[in-house]
Design goal:
The structure is a homodimer. By secondary structure, chain A is mainly α. Helices cover about 60% and strands about 10% of the residues of chain A. The first copy, chain A, contains six helices and three strands; from the N terminus they run H-H-E-H-H-E-E-H-H. In chain A, strands 1-3-2 form a three-stranded antiparallel beta sheet. In chain A, a hairpin with a 2-residue loop joins strand 2 and strand 3 (about 90-100). In chain A, helix 1 crosses helix 5 and helix 2 crosses helix 5. The first copy, chain A, starts with 11 loop residues before the first helix and ends in a 10-residue tail after the last helix. The first copy, chain A, binds a DNA duplex through helix 4 and strand 3.
DNA sequence: TATTGTTATACTCTATAACTATA
DNA sequence: TATAGTTATAGAGTATAACAATA
């Protein structure tokens, strides 16, 4: 089929949403049962980018509710991909850290994601792909787009 | 807070996802009970972009499952924002069309979306915002990124 | 027999509130 | 009293399969 497609009347958020949905669908379809879901990947990625951190931070940076973070970390801990340990300086906090298996699992999933992105972004030149990524990165890094729930 | 933020290790899909999630959250928070949800907006937008169409098309263009489309259209029809009528040439099909109220509701929601995007994309110059939108638009319009469920 | 749309259903994702343990 | 994390629960979003009507 020659791909008639919504234009979303010139707005950016619906376009980003469309790309993200297509990307996650393609990724989860490609990921075997020994690997991680796309939501688990977000958690592992944040740990890769920023090192061990308290659970509170996942809520802030990922825009996830605290109760979701608990469930996601439970899954990852059961699979042996992260560990939770108490912070001795403030025993209310759990410091979350990746295991070696967690590092490997993320790398494995990244390989899958790279394939998906190659397919989805294939109409853009490499330079344009880099440009798209840079623009999105700046937007997401801006205060307003951080996952803050304004609470 | 000075907004430390995930970098997602240089991938595009997670960045698009982050922006989309932040955008929908901000939009739905801003939308009153007399307005439409962001998923309903996608349906109305497709009708605006492409005119009256059968329900099958929503599945293809939006990447939504057929059963979801039914529910979404039920909501919109109950609110009087779309109408379904049988296609006389193929009585299996329902042709979906916006009502005047549907047109107005979409315009109203677009005004909200414009405010949200102004906030979220504010770190980019207008030229960069246009560039981002153009790149996303090309990606989404490419065959691979259409909501095709490969079935 | 194949297709469009519908229903029933279950599973995933997200949000809210009440709770605990620490501070 | 406030904060980090947990649990219970409900609601939104999504996917699968069986079905009715029509082709």
């Amino acid at each position: 089929m020659n791909s008639p497609v919504p234009r979303y009347s010139g707005h950016t958020i619906p376009l980003a949403s469309h790309l993200a949905r297509a990307g996650w669908r393609a990724l989860d379809r490609r990921v075997s049962s020994t690997e991680v879901t796309h939501r688990q990947m977000l958690v592992l990625t944040l740990l890769e980018d920023r090192g061990p951190m308290a659970q509170k931070a996942f809520r802030e940076f990922l825009g996830l509710d605290a109760s979701n973070v608990v469930g996601l970390l439970n899954e990852l801990e059961e699979q042996g991909l992260v560990v939770r340990r108490r912070n001795p300086d403030d025993r209310r906090q759990h410091v979350v850290e990746r295991t070696d298996a967690g590092v490997r699992a993320l790398e494995h999933t990244y390989a899958r994601l790279a394939i998906v992105e190659k397919e989805l972004l294939g109409t853009l030149t490499p330079a344009e792909q880099a440009q798209l990524q840079a623009l999105l990165s700046r937007v997401v890094s801006a205060p307003a787009a951080s996952g803050t729930n304004s609470d």
